[in-house]
Amino acid sequence: MKRLSLLIIFVATFSASCNKYLDTPTPKTEVVDEKVFADDKTATAAVTGIYISMNSLNYMWGNVMMNFLAGIHADDVYYASAFEDYDVFRQARLVPQSTYVERFWSAIYGYIYTANACVEGLTASQTLSPAVKNQLLGEARFMRAFFYFYLVNMYGDVPLVLTTDYRVSQTLPREKTEVVYNQVMADLKAAKELLGDNYATGNRVRPNKTAASALMARVYLYRHEWALAETEANSVITNGNYELLKNLNNVFLANSRESIFQLQSVNVAGGRNTWEAQVAIPANATAGPLFRLDTINLIPKFEAGDARLVNWTGNRTLASGATYYWPAKYKVRSSPTVQENTMVLRIGEQFLIRAEARIRQNKLTEGRSDLDSIRLRANLPVLNTTLDQGQLLLALEKERKLELFAEWGHRWFDLKRTQRSTAVLGPIKGATWAPTDTLYPIPSNARSTNINLSQNDGYDK
Fold first, then answer.
1. For residue 406, what is the domain's CATH number?
2. pTM for this one?
3. Closest alpha carbon to 442 in 432, 430, 452
4. What is the CA radius of gyration of the chain?
5. Which is nearest to 180 in space by CA: 151, 207, 154?
6. Number of folded domains in the chain?
């Protein structure tokens, strides 16, 4: 009989704050599928275990590494010292054996396995409360879509695994990106139907209907379906539960009105809040930051008076005389109370999505107005009304860079999807750069266990 391992939920013991995710005893052994999904509490534990496992430990794909390594691969972050596992990203020297190329692949497919197990178990269950079943099934399908969105943007064509049957999944070939995107949209549309407007616990740490719309808007944008992207982003922006916060220091607080979906801080031993703050903020008054903002390709791009430079970056001049900057969107390195959660989706991105969708449709006035909303929030003047479409798209690229730096790989993905990677990153990376570097290689260990996996161009040497 198939079994679903719930050992990942052990991380709930790290903090009583996990009770915001679920209010149920932690299962301590493997539980047969039917038993897991026969009861509202254990079924909830199975689904919320995905979020807990994503954010329970440090340097994982779901927190620090997707935020900062993707920034290193682009042009907004670098590491304080030479470290081969990071240098291969900064210098565009990835190979199929690179540590994080393999770790990311394994981690995301592990999350997908759990999401698949939840979809199967929830769908088959006849004993769950209808409202709970719909909520959990919507969450599981949302998360599966979320994971596949990142897989196709990191690796390109990938196996589309929709079952827990290893006899099927272990031999699947890579599916075309468009096929995977079709499944992403199918999951998001289903999630949007199943999820409610409200959050399951009152905290914004589990996806709701608006989260599904927000991710749909992003996917439509990436697929160049401009009108649909505009519609979905507009539905989020006009929802009265969300707003651009004027005080930038409040944006990344737990359950802020800018947040659409966050990962709850669960491992709060020693006063820790987010892993991002724990890693980015210097450990003491004289230490330099580990993950640093690029002082050539990012910091000088901020206009004079940009509140994002003041509020979302920290800086320190060391005894050597060198000044270093770090990402300071998260402020709390240590606190007796949890004040911040890891941001996943926020309304600031939705304004930028709607702006681009409108500009691409030649709705220049409306698109410029959305960009002005972001700029005014940053205490910057509005854009010149004479800018044409090409100029507005470059202004948009800049605003996305300065608004979304060190968040979930946005800068790297933006350059790739707009085919600007070589023009922007080529001169920075130098001789090691090739256009094929916009995708990670398929990991060697994955190909060694599945002979049907082909390799991405540029890595078959």
1. 1.25.40.390
2. 0.93
3. 452
4. 22
5. 151
6. 1
